[in-house]
Amino acid sequence: MDITVTELQTTTYCNSIAIRVGPSPSTVQSKSGAPMRTITVPRSALAVLTALLLGCADQPTVTVDEPTTPEPTGPHAAVYATLTADQNDALIGASSPVADSVELHETTVENGVASMAELDEIPLPEGESVILQPGGLHLMLLEPEPLQQGDRLAITLEFAEADAMEVEVPVVATADMPDHHDDH
């Protein structure tokens, strides 16, 4: 008997395969009804595939809620969101095809003077929501392409443990920002 491996997603190696044991594959469809690509591998590969899947059980994940960027008024743009990790992790970098670079920043106020500093990482404690917001932690797009309300930009977030993920971020008017976000 062979093992049929069905590709479900292509986002990360841990979310991309499922194992179904049986004879030749029948037509496999996704929830949307679209056919999915299948391959059949020898039974001897079961141990390797099982080890890969068991290793994925401990793979940390990070959820990103309410990503937004206010319409920029200068040469930079801030990105805000809420990040929650299911295990201790850290945001260690970001990139976007619409900006020269993306930096992790924190705004602090000392003696009534606000200053902004680049960070090497933003810790994501297990189960806690870390809010990227004005006056605190945020992402800074340096020299982005012109952005205006209604645009959507792609940002890739890189983590110390979890797989990198691409997030679509809407550009909104400051007045349309979620409650915990204000203009940068």
TrEMBL record:
Domain of life: Bacteria
Residue runs in coiled coils: none
Pfam families for the chain: PCuAC
Name of the protein described by the UniProt record: Copper chaperone PCu(A)C
Species assigned in the record: Egibacter rhizosphaerae
Gene3D superfamilies: PCu(A)C copper chaperone
